[in-house]
Specification:
The protein is α/β, with parallel strands linked by helices. Helix content is about 35%, strand content about 20%. Strand 5 (about 135), helix 6 (about 140-145) and strand 6 (about 150) form a beta-alpha-beta unit. The chain has two domains: about 5-150, 3-Layer(aba) Sandwich (Rossmann fold); about 165-295, Glycogen Phosphorylase B (Rossmann fold).
Length: about 325
């Protein structure tokens, strides 16, 4: 009997989004899949002295104990896990060249996936040559650097039709906050119901949205999505790739409002389901809000589902 293909995924935990890749691979008897998180377990200072030690180490030696902790943990884990047929890494730009070369020595095939653009993380450009293949969800990066195109994926599905509110958005406080506040104000003026939450580490003033100080888990977000009719996504200006929020909308059969203009080029786009808006001049037709969701052909949706998404990457 042929031994299973050994695959190692190295990735940020990312609220649990990346764990679904391992779960999808584990469904194949011909695959032995493991995952190594870049940020789990997290680094913690042992005491005040340890924190002070790191401060002076960065100041005088140029060494960050937090980064050293991650490097040592990854190297120790690879020594323990041994060689793999394929190593698939997400966010390799978080690691230095020496560590990436060390990881590469444990596999015959080293694959990277960029689910952030090089415009947001320029180091991604510098390390392309280290990999046997680089996938990217950003079509501009694909054309500029001759990468292989790969979107994010649908990892969960539901068809809940009873809703508690018409619009839902959850995000982290950043430069998009004024846009989200403005959107909520617009919805309020239209007398449309919404649940818009912005995560911040502490309380902060907000007139139209709810500020939360504890991050929601991926399961909690899923439950909130299922209670909405329309999901709202404000795209980062430096990216054109499709965020997970879009694939959550597809998986849960929800309508979507987005600022991502590139979405009209995808085969699942339908104007009854997806509305592209100008973030600086929001206009949402009442017809779009009131009309029902139009089901997308299963043949189109299936290729974005995680169980099929892994097939071409790992030649399954």
């Amino acid at each position: 009997m042929k031994s299973p293909k050994k695959i190692l995924i190295i990735a940020p935990f990312a609220f649990g989004y990346t764990a679904h890749i391992q779960k999808a691979l584990q469904q194949y008897e011909s695959v032995e899949a493991k995952i190594l998180y870049l940020d789990q377990p997290a680094f913690h200072y042992k005491n005040t002295f340890h924190k002070a030690q790191n401060f002076f180490s960065k100041l005088f030696l140029g060494k960050n104990l937090k980064k050293t902790f991650v490097t040592d943990r990854i190297k120790a884990s690879l020594h323990e896990l041994g060689a793999h047929d394929e190593i698939f890494i997400i966010r390799p730009d978080m690691l230095n060249d020496e560590v990436l070369q060390f990881i590469k020595s444990f596999t015959k095939k080293f694959i990277a996936y960029y689910y952030d653009s090089t415009r947001r993380f320029p180091r991604k450009v510098e390390i392309i040559s280290m990999f046997d293949k680089v996938y990217s969800y950003d079509c501009l990066d694909v054309s500029t650097y001759n990468l292989s195109f790969l979107t994010n994926y649908i990892f969960e599905e539901s068809k809940q039709t009873d809703v508690d509110y018409q619009f839902f958005n959850i995000s982290t406080n950043d430069y998009r906050f004024p846009l989200i506040e403005n959107l909520a104000k617009y919805l309020k003026e239209k007398n449309w119901t919404y649940n818009i939450q912005v995560y911040n580490g502490s309380e902060m003033p907000a007139e139209h949205v709810e500020i939360i100080t504890t991050q929601k888990s991926i399961q909690q977000v899923s439950e909130l999505i299922q209670k909405a009719k329309i999901i709202v996504e404000i795209q980062r200006t430096e990216q054109v790739g499709l965020s997970f929020r879009i694939f959550e909308a597809l998986g849960h059969h929800k309508k979507l409002i987005t600022t991502n203009k590139d979405i009209v080029n995808y085969d699942f786009f339908h104007p009854q389901n997806i509305l592209v808006v100008d973030e600086n001049n929001i206009e949402i037709p009442e017809e779009f809000v009131m009309s029902p969701y139009k089901e997308i052909d299963e043949g189109i949706l299936s290729k974005y589902k995680i169980e099929n998404w892994v097939k071409p990457i790992f030649e399954l």
